[in-house]
Design a protein that fits this description.
The complex is a heterotrimer of chains A (349), B (285) and C (239). Helix content of chain B is 73%, strand content 2%. Chain B has 285 residues and is mainly alpha-helical. In chain B, α1 runs parallel beside α5 and α2 crosses α9. Chain B is globular. With 239 residues, chain C is α/β, with parallel strands linked by helices. Chain C is 37% helix and 25% strand. In chain C, the strands form two sheets. In chain C, strands 6-7-8-3-9-10 form a six-stranded mixed beta sheet, with helices on both faces. A four-stranded antiparallel beta sheet of chain C has the order 2-1-4-5, with helices on one face. Classes of the chains: A mainly alpha (349), B mainly alpha (285), C alpha/beta (239). The structure holds adenosine-5'-triphosphate and magnesium ion. Adenosine-5'-triphosphate binds next to α1 of chain C.
Chain lengths: 349, 285, 239
């Protein structure tokens, strides 16, 4: 039994590799990637360091959210351990950097590995269990990470970890302005890699698994492997975001990753809704962005998050993506009837 | 050892009591109500305000607290559950998450996030059981939990509301076709669950650190208890709570490192679900 | 005005493509009317929309002189519509008696109706305390009919009474139903095969790909065999 699983996941991995290799950059993709990169980079010189710092945090938040988006909105799985999957890699990288005088930039990739491994652990349990019971497994895992690992001095230090100055290949990254482009590359890179992945056969297979595992199995899709892959992918992106957190924030404590953060991540991907990554970016901006940029004491800032969540959900149960498709459909209808037989509401599927 | 087991059992009564309310909602709405704790918390704050600050008689204050929580349950049903009927369960659950953070924001702004004083609804010296000093309010909580279980059984199986409710829970479309007003059943269910949340919170408030977060902190364990009990069984949920509390008592006694209890409980819950993927107790209606 | 169940200009669809177009039909009290159609013709959709479980895009439903078009199913049940749905849709862990009781809650005299129902379907009395999920298919169909009758309906909508049942049992149930019309209930009986309902129905409508293509007595339409060949065979071959 383990053997057959191994060969199947191997074929899954090789298909993934092939997919990534077959990708040839075109002018269109160059533009799609280049434009947002340039725009994000242009923000840096015209904002204060404080604002730039918040933007960087938001970008890393979005990277982790994109991972959960794949898990929830594409694979139909659920995780309430996402904050832990960001936090644990962040703390490990910070600790290693502080103890061994290593640059957090060089250590950042370790975060991906840790996140990936955590995803694998949850996936192993989720294999046996399904539905809401997965919720409790992930919740328990999140709680364990939070209360167990986050309270250990050998991991989180005794208060303040002194990080080594970031450097890579002999270059020193002393200022926030110098580090910012790295964060932009991480963000753009993960968004477009994920988009590419979801556009491929893999994305379609995930959708089949979500809508009907029995049919998927009958079509020769290895359902457990795909479910597990989704957990590991979500973990890896969480670990990526977490791994770069020490570099960006300079100081990370367990308080940065409270259990409630898992709920925030979940709220973001549900407000995003099924479909494109654009929805996630919008939802991250809406929920986490407002929290970051509005001062926490004003009446509006305090209530805006929850109220926006409830209103968006009840008005557009399919999330921002549904809203986007609707607007898009209406625009298409106004601009001209390019696609006959396709009415505005059609996109919702 | 026996002491920690018994102590854990009384903790478990708290988890079980909260879990009962979660199951009541789950059976009809098929979702986990993440706002359950906060709905109760607001009721407990109203109760404490009226009883301690405005010197209202105990019974009236308790009644007012329960009523506020029941009303919040009804409002949640109306604002979130009803518009989201027919949507994926996850969407509805995140809707209740929104309600939960809304109520938390309100409580923190209205009452500050700091812990406040909570007086037990009954006081006294307590008595010793097997070397453990048990306070009267702990006994009261147990009695109330058992009374709620009995009352729920009575309502479910002996009243016409219970009959409507069970039919709606099993197939709301078929229930509507024989004239059951499923909207009212749903609203009634949320009112009952809200009232249970309020009563639990009032009883629990003096047994833990009484801040705006006191119920949120217990939610995770209550949820684990409900799931261990198979999610649709109120007695199963209560038993699950006591099981969890006793496990916590023993683990906390054996291993005092911070987080040891949570880590072990996580492993325990995972282990139980791996062996019995549908919980310890099978679902009932 | 003669009291009757009237459906006019009914158009129903699940997404955007209509499954039913411009349906007009009526059922008189005490009348047994058949709707015959092949798989996928839209029979189930029609009954669900008349009951109000499924919204209609356009058209009206009238129960006697009351327009119920904007009412939800729970109110239509109260003004006299009842539905035996496809697949029975029983409350699996409720007992037979509880099924009758929950439906009887909107009946002004549930005890009397219950006696009638148990007389009509004596098997149910034997199985009173058994959970519906553990009953045989035929017994389950009886519970579904009994449950619908307990609301004391003016008009009863029945979706494929015969599905999954031995012809003898189906025949028995149809006869029981025909007896129930003595109380004045009009019955709309959906079936795939004209033979099963031949003795029971006063009139039939033929439903083909979402439209009613013929109406009349079985004899006026050329008899059960000819209907089966001409109308109901079409889709089977096409599929
Ligand atoms: N929930 C649904 N969503 C989308 N399309 C549906 C749905 N239910 C039915 N349909 C479609 O509507 C058409 C009519 O279906 P319906 O169930 O009413 O047929 P029927 O006449 O009852 O068939 P049968 O004899 O097989 O029961 C079919 O083409 C079917 O695919
Ligand atoms: Mg049908």
């Amino acid at each position: 039994m383990p053997n057959s699983t191994d060969t199947r996941s191997a074929s899954f991995a090789s298909r993934l590799r092939e997919k990534l290799r077959s990708h040839r950059p075109t002018t269109k993709t160059t533009l799609q990637i280049g434009l947002p990169t340039v725009l994000l980079l242009l923000i840096a010189p015209i904002t204060s360091d404080v604002t730039l710092f918040k933007i960087g945090l938001l970008l890393l938040f979005a990277v982790a959210a994109v991972g959960l988006h794949v898990l929830v909105n594409w694979a139909g799985e659920l995780s309430l351990a996402h904050a832990g999957m960001v936090g644990l890699p962040a703390l490990v990288v910070a600790k290693l950097s502080s103890d061994h005088n290593l640059s957090p930039l060089e250590l950042a990739p370790i975060g991906i590995l840790i996140g990936f491994a955590l995803g694998a652990v949850v996936a192993a349990t989720a294999r046996r269990v399904s539905g809401l019971y997965v919720t409790i497994v992930t919740l328990a895992a999140g709680l364990a990470i939070d209360r167990f690992f986050f309270t250990k001095p050998w991991l989180v230090g005794t208060g303040n970890l002194k990080l080594t100055a970031p450097r890579l290949a002999g270059l020193e990254f002393g200022s926030i302005q110098a580090i910012y482009p790295i964060i932009v590359v991480v963000f753009i890179g993960s968004v477009f890699a994920t988009r590419r992945l979801l556009d491929s056969k893999l994305g379609r297979a995930l959708l089949t698994v979500r809508s009907d595992p029995t049919i998927a199995q009958a079509q020769g899709i290895n359902v457990p492997a795909y479910r597990a892959a989704a957990y590991m992918f979500a973990g890896a992106l969480a670990g990526l975001a977490g791994g770069f957190m020490p570099l960006w924030a300079q100081r990370v404590t367990p308080d940065s990753f409270p259990l409630e953060l898992s709920f925030t991540y979940l709220a973001v991907v549900v407000v995003a809704g099924r479909g494109s990554i654009n929805g996630v970016l919008g939802a991250a901006l809406l929920i986490e962005g407002f929290r970051q940029f509005l001062s926490g004491t004003s009446f509006i800032a305090a209530y805006l998050g929850p109220v926006a969540l409830i209103v968006t959900l009840t008005r557009f149960p399919g999330g921002l993506n549904q809203f986007g498709r609707m607007i898009g459909g209406q625009l298409a209808g106004v601009v001209g009837r390019f696609r006959p037989g396709r009415s505005p509401g059609d996109a919702e599927g | 050892m026996e002491i920690s087991l018994l102590n854990g059992a009384f903790l478990g009564v708290i988890y079980g009591l909260i879990a009962i309310g979660l199951v009541v909602v789950y059976r009809v709405t098929r979702i986990i109500n993440f706002a359950h704790g906060e709905i109760g918390m607001i009721g407990a704050f109203v109760f404490a305000d009226l009883w301690l600050d405005h010197d209202l008689p105990l019974v009236l204050a308790v009644g007012a607290g329960i009523a506020v929580s029941a009303l919040l349950g009804v409002i949640t049903e109306f604002v979130v559950i009803r518009p989201l009927r027919g949507q994926p369960r996850l969407t509805v659950m995140v809707g209740t998450l929104g309600v939960s953070s809304l109520l938390l924001v309100y409580a923190v702004r209205r009452y500050s996030p700091r812990p406040r004083f909570a007086r037990p609804v009954i006081e006294g010296n307590g008595f010793e059981i097997a070397g453990l000093l048990v306070r009267p309010v702990q006994i009261l909580t147990l009695v109330v939990a058992l009374a709620i279980l009995a009352l729920l059984a009575l309502v479910m199986f002996k009243s016409s509301f219970g009959l409507r409710l069970r039919a709606t829970a099993l197939d709301s479309e078929a229930a509507a076709e024989v004239g059951v007003r499923v909207g009212r059943v749903s609203m009634g269910t949320w009112a009952i669950a809200g009232a249970i949340a309020g009563l639990s919170a009032i009883l629990v408030s003096s047994q833990v650190v009484f801040s705006a977060f006191f119920m949120s902190r217990l939610m995770l364990r209550a949820l684990a208890a409900a799931l261990l009990g198979g999610l649709t069984s109120v007695t199963g949920a209560f038993a699950g709570g006591i099981f969890l509390g006793m496990a916590e008592g023993v683990i906390g006694f054996q291993w005092i490192a911070p987080g040891a209890v949570e880590a072990s409980l996580a492993v325990l819950v995972m282990a139980v679900l791996i062996v019995r993927p549908k919980g310890l107790v099978a679902a009932e209606y | 005005m003669i009291p009757k169940l009237t459906v006019t200009g009914f158009t129903v669809g699940y997404t955007h493509v209509p499954v039913l177009r411009g349906i007009d039909l009526d059922v008189l009290p005490s009348e047994v009317v058949g709707i015959l159609g092949a798989n996928g013709a839209g029979k189930t959709t029609l009954l669900r929309a008349i009951m109000g479980t499924l919204p209609a895009t356009s058209g009206t439903v009238q129960v006697d002189d009351l327009d119920v078009t904007s009412m939800p199913a729970e109110d239509r049940a109260r003004v006299g519509l009842a539905h035996v749905p496809e697949g029975r849709r029983l409350f699996s862990s409720l007992t037979v008696e509880e099924h009758l009781d929950v439906a009887g809650l909107i009946n002004p005299d549930p005890a009397a109706t219950k006696d009638q129902v148990l007389e009509l379907l004596p098997k149910l009395a034997e199985r009173r305390r058994q959970k519906a999920g553990t009953l045989s298919g035929g017994e389950q169909q009886m519970v579904a009919i009994g449950r619908a009758l307990m609301t004391a309906p003016r008009y009863l909508l029945i979706d494929e009474l015969s599905a999954g049942l031995a012809p003898v049992i189906a025949q028995e149930l149809v006869e029981a139903l025909v007896r129930s019309r003595e109380s004045g209930t009009g019955v709309l009986l959906v079936e795939q095969s004209p033979h099963l309902v031949a003795d029971a129905v006063d009139r039939v409508y033929l439903l083909e790909r979402g439209s009613l293509v013929a109406e009349g007595t079985l004899a006026s339409l050329g008899g059960a065999d000819r209907i089966a060949d001409l109308y109901l065979g079409v889709d089977r071959e096409g599929a």
